[in-house]
Amino acid sequence: xxxxxxxxYTGQDGLPxxxxxxxxxxxxxxxxxxxxxxxxxxxxxxxxxxxxxxxETGTGLGVGLAWLLSGAAPGVRLYGVERDAxxxxxxxxxxxxxxxxxxxxxxxxxxxxxxPFDLLVLDGGGQGKAPGDRPADxxxxxxxxxxxxxxxxxxxxxxxxxxxxxxxxxxxxxxxxPALRATELRLAPDLSTVVGTRLLV
Length: 201
Ligand SMILES: C[S@@+](CC[C@H](N)C(=O)[O-])C[C@H]1O[C@@H](n2cnc3c(N)ncnc32)[C@H](O)[C@@H]1O
Prior knowledge:
Layout: H1 17-28, H2 37-47, E1 53-57, H3 63-71, E2 77-82, H4 85-94, E3 101-105, E4 117-122, H5 138-141, E5 142-153, E6 162-163, E7 166-167, H6 169-175, E8 180-188, E9 191-198
Parallel strand pairs: 1-2, 1-4, 2-3, 4-5
Antiparallel strand pairs: 5-9, 6-7, 8-9
The protein binds S-adenosylmethionine.
């Protein structure tokens, strides 16, 4: 998890208005874990290719969802889920009046009712990083040709990826998933993200 994603926007110009609004909510709630600007810009770019639905687990105060909405074409529907009820309520306020956005309160699995997605961002639940966190089933949740994004890895050199002295099984799950073509993108010297496209057949 990015420890200071919210602070990383300090002094940044040219942010989409909705991202600024979500950042204001994150600051007002003392929430430091918003996605970093590098990640947000990646989400913004990928959202432009979605036709139908975009999903995000772990919406926080809505910064990533705001990047997604700012990049998406008109008519695309967006679904976020956040288990912390106060954060979910505040995120809904960020998107007040934007009927194409639904922020659910609860465990990330609630989003399963709204798939399949053209773009699915796993930022809180469904990443398979934490003990007991089952990785999201992309064969069910992604439309063919759809994209999954798994945020917040520490860049590593070499193979297999090692994190904290052990083979990073969570990262390998995504990079070697038989239904995906996936790669790790280094967004900053200390931040990488795995992006995978679901095979058409
Ligand atoms: C890294 S922060 C989210 C940042 C946010 N996506 C953004 O772009 O600003 C992770 C969030 O995931 C939420 N979370 C963690 N586990 C979850 C789960 N199992 N289901 C739903 N939300 C979860 C946490 O409460 C936290 O708000």
